[in-house]
Amino acid sequence: MALRIIMMLVCSGLALSSYVVINQYFNISGLSVILPQSLGMLYSALVINLKGKHRLRFSPVLRNLFTGLVWSIANLALFISNGLIGMAASFPISQASIAIACVGSILIFKEKKSLYEWLAILVGITVLMIGVGMISLLKP
Asked: Which residues of 29-52 are buried (b: 16+ CB within 10 A; e: fewer)?
C-alpha cells in the first residue's frame, strides 16, 4: 500500500513538473499553450468520464464551474509570468497560494481543527514559505 502511494506521489510530481517545464523547454509562450492545453484537459475529462462507472451530471459541473474559471485565470497568470520572470521564480510564487487556499478554505467552510491540526498546518505553510523564499534567492 505504501509503495502504491509513493508511486502516485512520484508520478504526480513528475507530471506537475513537466506541466511547467515542457513549455519553457520548447520556448512556448503562455498564451499560445492555453488552447491546446484546454482541449487536452477537456478530452482527458471526457475519457475519464466515459471509462468511469458514473455518468456526467450537470449539477456538479455547475457547482464547480466557478472553481475551474478561477483556476484557469491562475493558470494563465502562471504561464504569462513564466515568460516574464522565468520559471524558477514564478512557479514557487504560484505555489505560495497554497497557504492562502489552505487557511482560507478552513475558515470559509468553518471546519473545526484541533490545536495539533492547526500546528501541523502552520508548520507545513512555514516550510512551504521558507522554500519559496529560498528559491527566490537563487534567481539572480
From this structure: ebeebeeebeeeeeeeeeeeeeee
CA distances from 117 to 60, 113, 114 (A): 29, 6, 5
Distance CA 20, CA 115 (A): 36
User: Tens digits of per-residue pLDDT, 26-63?
Assistant: 887 777 777 887 888 888 888 877 877 777 777 877 88
pLDDT of the residue at 84? 80
Helices (H) and strands (E) in the chain, counts: 6, 0
115 or 29, higher pLDDT: 115
DSSP line for 45-104:
HHHHHHHSSSPP-HHHHHHHHHHHHHHHHHHHHHHHHHHHH-HHHHHHHHHTHHHHHHHH
CB contact at 8 A, 55 and 49: yes
Query: pLDDT for 10-22, tens place per residue?
Result: 888 888 778 777 8
pTM above 0.85, yes or no: no
